[in-house]
Hints:
Chain A: This is PhnB protein. Chain A: It comes from Pseudomyxococcus hansupus. Chain A: Belongs to the YciI family. Chain A: It holds the Pfam family YCII. The structure holds two protein chains of two kinds. By secondary structure, chain A is of the alpha+beta class. Chain A has a single domain, classed as 2-Layer Sandwich (Alpha-Beta Plaits). Helix content of chain A is 28%, strand content 34%. Chain A contains three helices and six strands, in the order E-H-H-E-E-E-E-H-E. Chain A is flat and about 50 Å long. By secondary structure, chain B is mainly α. In chain B, helix 3 packs antiparallel against helix 4, helix 13 packs across helix 14 and helix 16 runs antiparallel to helix 17. Chain B is globular and about 75 Å long. In chain B, 40% of the residues are buried. The chains are: A alpha+beta, B mainly alpha.
Amino acid sequence: MKYLLMIYENEKAFESLPEADIQRVMGEYATFTEALHTSGNFIAGEELEPTAAATTVRIRDGKRLTTDGPFAETREQLGGFYLVDARDLDEAIGIASRIPSARHGSIEVRPVREFTPPEA
Amino acid sequence: MTDPATILERVHREDYGRLVATLIRALDGDFGAAEEVVQEAFAAALAQWPREGVPREPAAWLMRAARNKAVDRVRRGARLDARVGELEVVARIEQALAPLPDGAEWQAVPDDSLRLLFTCCHPALSSESQVALALRCLCGLTTEEIARAFLVSPATLAQRLVRAQRKIRTARIPYVVPAPDALAERTESVLHTLYLVFSEGYAATDGPELLRVDLCEEALRLARWARSLLPRDAEVASLRALMLLHHARRRARVAADGGLVLLDRQDRALWDQGQMAEGLTELEAALAMGARGAYTVQAAIAALHAQAPRAEDTDWAQIASLYERLCVLTPGPVVALNHAAAVAMARGPEHGLALVDDLEASGRLADYHLLPAARADLLRRLGRKEEAVEAYRRALAWVRTAPERHFLEARLRELGVE
């Protein structure tokens, strides 16, 4: 079963870390991602650019409205994700708890909806 | 006891949870489907038994009926979803439910109930759903009974249960006893659930009976397993001590006419000495492990009662100070009421009454019958008869179990009121 692990973090706090700390966290991420490949859980995973680079699009009354920034103002921002294959929620929670950002940010674990193909 | 409906009711009370627990495993963790097939089996029994007679092993009959319905269900489902190998699924059901020779008594795999308990207490479910789900699936309480225990409407509770079952299915919460490293995270809610199951049995919120011994025993059975799973957890030992010390008094709590007998009037010879001793040993073990939590304090209170040879020997001063600590650990109106009652015993009814009046003024127990009942008792002891009668009448207006009603009516008669 597929789970999307969404990494939420205070990006301002992360950006203000000393360079050495950022390097250390990046190293932890590399090790973690490598382990996910080895265990066979990895499907996809990316780090996102900060929300300053974000644009929100919506269509209202048939008109497109494009605005700067993310849709919601929150303390923590979506900074990256992993798409993993896990046996059940407990395995997915186990993986999420090893993501380096789990120690200061939070990881939302969401099952990916599976569509049953229509009967042949 | 040959009336099929009566027997069915008893089996429902005693075996519902274990039937559901086994079926959930067979149906690969599908709570909703398991409940449905067990309910279908009960419906079939209700239709068949009056015509064909009650089978010799009613629970085994229901297990077979539920299994057949589960197999039918999987066959129907497998036709709809070609990706699932039908034979494979049916084989798994057959294996999970183990072939039952005719007439053999059905026995649940002990692990099933524990698995069910831990799944219900998964931290991915909201805490109110956890307990509701456990009471529904494990103990077979009706949605109405649970709703009353939680003081919410049946519709709200039903919605909560549906949402929890849907999350178990869509997020795929596994139907297992968690690995040792994940146990700690779940212990608290497992203990809380067991505590509520026991409490519901110890003082049923509704119905003709005051005690639901079956619920108490189910909680004790699960607490013993939890204890062997977590031998070094002080709170588990405390909770088990608490349950044993209370359950040991069960025979003395209900009179021959079904009425309630309060602690001070109980025949202490009816207390189960073996269970008391086991409870005290558990409490010592818990204290040796450094237990200081709410279950420990409650067990210590029960132990002080257990150790008094006669009611008048009770160490009320110490009990009052333990309740004071409990008010800090788990603040709540019910604990406050118990504290007031202990203070009344230790220092005199007028001191208790002052605390009860404070509680009433706070308005936190607006429709709780034990508040006027406690007030009435203190007023009676202070010789303020008319106020006592009025308080007993208010308690009677809110009381829900028949034995408690009889108890209050008897107290009113003692005051010369019909």
